[in-house]
């Protein structure tokens, strides 16, 4: 916790942002979700219940960085058989590859509170470049005296780029599971120290 007289925010290009420091993803206020097409006609939504992230805010906000780790076995689509299949070697192979990892490589300003976070995403031992569209939601102080900031982020990946190629052809044409997966993240980060 920081003292109430110590500045914990600053102005930067019209935004109120956190002062430099290390923040961690608040486990109680986060969602690491995804959306996949099913049978070419509907969407299946799910999330990973267990994810951690460390965000380092620097003097120059555009040099800030993020590392994140997601437990593959924590996948949840509210359907036990599907979740077991997604954990299996046909998809995430959670036993051999227990985590999905992200490491940022650059931050680019977009417009106002919107940014692009470029980085490397590793799934099932395969690393690919991705760009997350990030919206900075604001800074505040919790009732417990913790300095926090909120954000949302999204991107779309082709699961086959990561070796997640299992599928079934449909008699009506198309496939059971779409290749494109939308990733949706909402969270709060808490200042450490």
Walk me through this protein's architecture.
- With 193 residues, this protein is mostly beta strands.
- 4% of the residues lie in helices and 60% in strands.
- The chain has one helix and twelve strands, in the order E-E-E-E-E-E-E-H-E-E-E-E-E.
- The chain has one helix at 80-87; strands spanning 9-12, 15-18, 21-38, 42-48, 51-57, 65-71, 75-76, 99-111, 114-123, 126-141, 147-158, 177-191.
- The strands form two sheets. It has an eight-stranded antiparallel barrel.
- Strand 3 and strand 4 (42-48) form a beta hairpin.
- The longest helix has 8 residues, at 80-87.
- The radius of gyration is 18 Å and the shape is elongated.
Topology:
Blueprint: E1 9-12, E2 15-18, E3 21-38, E4 42-48, E5 51-57, E6 65-71, E7 75-76, H1 80-87, E8 99-111, E9 114-123, E10 126-141, E11 147-158, E12 177-191
Antiparallel strand pairs: 1-2, 3-4, 3-5, 3-12, 4-7, 5-6, 6-8, 8-9, 9-10, 10-11, 11-12
Offer a few descriptive terms.
single chain, 193 residues, mainly beta, eight-stranded antiparallel β-barrel, two-stranded antiparallel ribbon, 4% helix, 60% strand, elongated, disordered N terminus
Computed structural class: mainly beta
Shape: elongated
String of helices and strands: EEEEEEEHEEEEE
- Give the biggest sheet: 8 strands, antiparallel, barrel
Oligomer: single chain
- Strand order of the main beta sheet, please? 3-5-6-8-9-10-11-12
Distance between the termini: 6 Å
Whole-number mean pLDDT: 90
The share of residues in helices is under 10%
């Amino acid at each position: 916790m920081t003292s109430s007289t110590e500045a914990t925010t600053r102005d930067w290009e019209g935004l109120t942002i956190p002062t430099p420091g290390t923040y961690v993803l608040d486990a109680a206020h986060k969602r690491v979700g995804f959306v996949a097409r099913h049978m070419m006609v509907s969407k299946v939504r799910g999330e990973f219940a267990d994810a951690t992230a460390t965000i380092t805010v620097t003097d120059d906000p555009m040099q800030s960085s993020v590392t994140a780790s997601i437990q593959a076995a924590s996948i949840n689509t509210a359907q036990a058989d599907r979740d077991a299949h997604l954990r299996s070697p046909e998809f995430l192979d959670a036993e051999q590859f227990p985590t999905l990892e992200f490491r940022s490589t650059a931050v680019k300003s977009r417009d106002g509170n919107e940014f692009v976070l470029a980085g490397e995403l590793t799934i099932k031992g395969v690393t690919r470049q991705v760009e997350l569209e990030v919206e900075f939601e604001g800074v505040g102080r919790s009732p417990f005296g913790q300095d926090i900031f909120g954000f949302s982020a999204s991107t779309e990946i082709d699961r086959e780029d990561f070796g997640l190629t299992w599928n079934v052809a449909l008699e009506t044409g198309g496939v059971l599971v779409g290749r494109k997966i939308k990733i949706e993240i909402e969270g709060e980060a808490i200042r450490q120290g």
